[in-house]
Write a structure and sequence with these properties.
The complex is a heterodimer of chains A (254) and B (658). With 254 residues, chain A is α/β, with parallel strands linked by helices. Chain A has a domain at 2-87 and 161-248: P-loop containing nucleotide triphosphate hydrolases (Rossmann fold), CATH 3.40.50. Chain A is built from 10 helices and 10 strands. In chain A, the strands form 2 sheets. Chain A has a 6-stranded mixed β-sheet, sandwiched between helices. In chain A, strands 2-1-4-5 form a 4-stranded antiparallel β-sheet, covered by helices on one side. The radius of gyration of chain A is 18 Å and the shape is globular. Chain B is globular. Chain B folds into 3 domains: 2-293, ABC transporter involved in vitamin B12 uptake, BtuC; 320-558 and 565-587, ABC transporter involved in vitamin B12 uptake, BtuC, CATH 1.10.3470; 634-658, no CATH class. The N and C termini of chain B lie far apart (86 Å). In chain B, helix 16 (392-413) runs antiparallel to helix 21 (523-549), helix 22 crosses helix 23 and helix 22 packs across helix 25. With 658 residues, chain B is mainly α. In chain B, strand 4 and strand 5 form a beta hairpin. The chains are: A alpha/beta (254), B mainly alpha (658). Chains A and B meet through helix 2, helix 3, helix 4, helix 5 and helix 6 of A and helix 18, helix 19 and helix 20 of B. Bound molecules: adenosine-5'-triphosphate and magnesium ion. Residues 42-43, 84, 169 of chain A line the site of magnesium ion.
């Protein structure tokens, strides 16, 4: 059964249709790639799924309807995401960034903390840091990090929530080829451990290398979907996105 | 009906002044993205210059023409100084820092005027012809029409300049995309300077011309910026025509409202005209403007470094708190009575600044309302204790509860409003509360209402308690201990808050509301909680104020006093409890100003001047405030060279079976 099920989601900004009738499913343990040229609507899709832009259509998480729910409710039900431009909490340290998603203090624990009770360290934080090899940065301030490090901390922050699904918006941008490949291996491992992942990236060798399934967007519509091998050779996809460089694994648009 | 018309026309004078200042606000915003709170103060400066030059204040008298020219030169000089010394260095700072910078200018100018001209309101001679015209059977002074015509002409001329001149093009380009404007060879500094000068000229001119209609003083004139901000909000901080029209209409409606309030059917305040209706109207209009226009200001394409002052994790809390408390206990007993009083004032000042640490430091929202909540708590305390005879801890708790609920209600209704807009509406709200509520004799009144001393189990804990310090004088150290206990408890709580999950959520909201929501944080709930905590602290300070002086009066809780406190909070370090301590020591009647006055004969007004200047210097050179600088010096010693980290450290991902 699909953990994340999105049915004919549409978004328009003013009169512009940024997304039209996009449907997509991600199963537990599955790594689904979402690719397409700049401005195709990939980020808008994640915004719509996470509730950050008003959208038509239906979003289900683990069989429960999330349509119309505010972003924080969706996040608490197990829908995590990263941002294309990282969007870390710059005033917090790296581990505090993770704690924000890992700990969801109830009124009761908040009161306890006010009275000086220490909440035990949340193992999810150390675990997420370890998955991405960020232990050394735990106490660094988020605003001191390099661009690549910010991306990784964004991924770790999503992981720390122990979500059912993570939507990753270009997590490898800012990493070099080797680092990107290493991130891919680690993401694959995360998926294999049972989390559903939706991966947006322009690095085709990364996407084609680790994804089970790839969906291609153009002008807000799905123009192809299927296993990487089939999508890679789809004439419509080559024309719209991959271009002649499909063989080298990098699309023309960066 | 005729009377209404008459008052409407009379209101044109005030309206023209508001419109002129509103034009100044809009022009400055277009030029540099700064909401200049000191635009009204520019009108004040030139009005005072004009008055002093025509009345022989400096020992010579100029004819009206040259005096007006001199006044405009003063306005321009203020403009140049503001631009070069404040706005330019703050170019890349956050909008809130810019707003605070203009606040520094306002406080500085106000202090300057007080030091030179004193507190006495003045009446300036009129430049405009003093004749009257008969209109629909009414005799009306013609200067009202001349003034209105003049601002309208200024608005049209400015509009033409922006539309057709190269300078106008440059301003528009710079406000859309500063980077692109730079590439096209336009200097944002030049554009900004030219606009600031234009704004100063317009505000200064209106200050001179409208001076005879409104009185020249150091409070009313600078605060005309509040109705002007309402007009500017209607204009979306861009349209000159709307700003001008709205400004004139606000003046007219204030005048009509005044007329209505003198009618027999209108509710009165114990037989007198209801106070503060004008300010209430302005506040209501701002709320309407925010609904019509949306809560956000138009975004400028600036290369802005949005970061607010850092909020480090405090490593030790209890030990420094205990040390400070022990020092304070000894000081309260040993110090002579005047310093004991000043120390008590400092602690109360610190508590009110703590409320800003929570709402501004942790959540990044400037609410000018907080001091008004202190005042509300003080007045409610008096009513509970005097009128209903509620005994000590319950009267104080009840007062705190009422004021906190008010603060939460304000916070809930302002949820969509954030950042600079929030600062602007809450300023209007603070002014409305001050004028309409605190000056209303059935609730408050300038004369003050009494607050009986706190007594617990028959023991007087107030400033007049029997237990006296070494010098045997009032105030009693016992009351100091009470204040100290509250201060230490609240200080510890606010510092501790930074380490809790709620504190992290607040900082997450401050950093990035979208990312916070996506991380599962209920942004609205966090903001409301922050408003509740901040309001609670501010209200507690208000009850302490009441007990401290045995009475509560409106003068302590004015909107201007609130602005001054925010200034002190920034200077001290608005994100830290130690910053609140520093701010408390600087606040009105606290140890620092008291010592300066006693030992060096430096008056409070000088402290205000010093405060205004230090605010600007702090924002430019040391945004983390005194406490931040101290913290940096301490940590710099133990800092090691940062290690460069790239990519992944060789770490094993836990074993996965697929
Ligand atoms: N807030 C917005 N207002 C108006 N239009 C927007 C907004 N955000 C995105 N768009 C438009 O919607 C379309 C989809 O944008 P989106 O950011 O989703 O693309 P993307 O596939 O993520 O592109 P990229 O690969 O560059 O990240 C674009 O045409 C974009 O200009
Ligand atoms: Mg995108």
């Amino acid at each position: 059964m699909s953990v994340l099920s999105v049915q004919s989601v549409s978004v328009s900004y003013g009169g512009v249709h940024a997304l039209s009738d996009v449907s997509l499913e991600v199963r537990a343990g599955q790594l689904v790639g979402l690719i397409g040229p700049n401005g195709a609507g990939k980020t808008t899709f994640v915004d719509a799924v996470t509730g950050l832009v008003p959208a038509r259509g239906r979003v289900e998480l683990d069989g429960r309807d999330l349509t119309g729910r505010p972003p924080h409710t969706r996040a608490r039900r197990g829908l995590a995401r990263t941002f294309q431009s990282s969007e870390l909490f710059d005033d917090l340290t790296v581990s505090e960034n993770l704690l924000v998603t890992a700990d969801r203090p109830s009124w009761w624990t908040a009161l306890g903390e006010t009275l000086g009770r220490r909440t035990p360290a949340n193992p999810a934080v150390a675990e997420a840091l370890a998955v991405l090899g960020l232990q050394d940065l735990a106490d660094a301030s988020a605003h001191e990090l390099s661009q690549g490090q910010r991306k990784l901390v964004g991924v770790a922050r999503a992981l720390a929530a122990r979500p059912l699904v993570i939507c990753l918006d270009e997590p490898a941008a800012g990493l070099d080829t080797a680092e990107s490949a290493e991130l891919g291996r680690r993401l694959r491992a995360v998926a294999d451990a049972g989390t559903a992942l939706l991966l947006i990236d322009h690095d085709m060798s990364l996407v084609m290398g680790i994804c089970d399934h790839v969906v291609v967007l153009e002008f807000g519509r799905v123009i192809a979907s299927g296993p990487p091998a089939r999508v890679r050779t789809d004439p419509a996809v080559i024309a719209a996105y991959l271009g002649a460089s499909a063989t080298t694994g990098t699309p023309e648009t960066p | 009906m005729e009377q209404i018309l008459l008052f409407a026309v009379l209101g044109l004078g005030q309206g023209a002044l508001i419109a002129g200042i509103a034009l100044g606000v809009v022009v400055t915003y277009r030029g540099s993205g700064i909401i200049n709170l000191s635009t009204g103060a520019v009108a004040m400066a030139s009005a005072y210059a004009f008055w002093s030059l025509t009345t022989g204040f400096f020992g010579f008298t100029l004819p009206v023409g040259p005096a007006a020219a001199g006044a405009l030169v003063v306005a321009l000089a203020v403009g140049v100084l503001t631009e070069v010394a404040v706005f330019r260095p703050l170019r890349t700072s956050s909008p809130l820092a810019k707003l605070a910078g203009s606040l520094g200018v306002l406080l500085t100018m106000q202090a300057g005027v007080l030091l030179i001209f004193g507190t006495q309101p003045q009446q300036a001679p009129s430049i405009l012809p003093a004749d009257t015209i008969t209109f629909l059977g009414l005799t009306i002074p013609s200067d009202r029409f001349v003034l209105t015509g003049l601002v309208a002409a200024i608005a049209l001329a400015l509009g033409a300049v922006y539309r057709w001149s190269r300078f106008g093009l440059a301003t528009r380009a710079a406000s859309e995309n500063e980077q692109a404007a730079l590439l096209a060879g336009l200097s944002p500094n030049g554009v900004s300077l030219a606009n600031t000068l234009l704004a100063a000229l317009v505000a200064g001119l209106l200050g001179v011309l409208a001076a005879p209609i409104v009185q020249v003083d150091s409070i009313t004139l600078p605060l005309q910026v509040v109705p002007a901000l309402a007009a500017a909000l209607f204009a979306g901080f861009t349209s000159l025509g709307v700003a001008c029209t709205a400004g004139v209409l606000i003046g007219v409606s204030q005048s009509i409202l005044y007329y209505l309030s003198t009618q027999s059917w209108f509710p009165t305040d114990n037989g007198n005209a209801m106070p503060g209706l004008q300010q209430l109207l302005v506040f209501a209009l701002m709320v309407v403007a925010l609904y019509v226009r949306g809560a956000g200001l138009p975004r400028r394409g600036e290369a802005v470094e949005q970061r607010l002052p850092a909020v480090p994790l405090p490593d030790r809390l209890l030990r420094p708190a205990l040390v400070a408390a022990a020092v304070a206990v000894v000081a309260l007993i040993v110090l002579p009575f005047d310093f004991r009083q000043a120390l008590t004032n400092s602690m109360i000042g610190m508590v009110i600044v703590l409320s800003y640490v929570v709402i501004t430091g942790y959540v990044g929202q400037i609410s000018v309302m907080q001091l008004a909540l202190s005042g509300t708590a003080g007045f409610v305390l008096s009513h509970l204790a005097v009128r209903w005879g509620v005994p000590f801890p319950f009267s104080a708790l009840g007062a705190v509860l009422v004021a906190t609920l008010l603060g939460v209600a304000a916070g809930v209704s302002a949820l969509r409003v954030r950042g600079v807009s929030l600062a602007v509406v809450t300023l209007a709200a603070a002014l409305a509360v001050e004028q309409a509520l605190f000056n209303n004799t059935s609730f408050g009144g300038t004369a003050g209402v009494t607050v009986p001393p706190p007594t617990l189990f028959g023991i007087d804990l107030g400033p007049k308690a029997d237990f006296r310090g070494l010098d045997g004088n009032e105030p009693s150290p016992l009351f100091g201990f009470l204040v100290l206990a509250v201060t230490v408890a609240l200080g510890l709580y606010v510092a501790h808050l930074r380490r809790t999950g709620l504190g992290r959520q607040m900082l997450a909201v401050r950093s990035n509301e979208r990312a916070a929501a996506a991380a599962g944080i209920d942004v609205r709930a966090v903001k409301i909680t922050a408003f509740a905590i901040s309001s609670f602290i501010a209200s507690a300070a208000g009850t302490l104020y009441g007990y401290n002086f045995g009475s509560v009066s409106a003068a302590r809780f004015t909107a201007l006093a609130a602005l001054g406190l925010i200034g002190f909070a920034y200077i001290g370090g608005i994100t830290r409890v130690s910053g609140a301590l520093a701010a408390g020591l600087m606040s009105t009647g606290a140890l620092l100003p008291h010592a300066l006055e006693k030992w060096f004969g430096i008056k409070g007004t000088w402290a205000l001047l010093f405060g205004g200047v230090s605010l600007v210097v702090t924002l430019i050179a040391n945004p983390d405030g005194i406490a931040g600088a101290a913290h940096r010096r301490k940590t710099a010693k133990k800092a090691k060279s940062p290690e460069v980290f790239r990519g992944f450290t060789p770490v094993e991902v836990k074993e996965v079976t697929s």
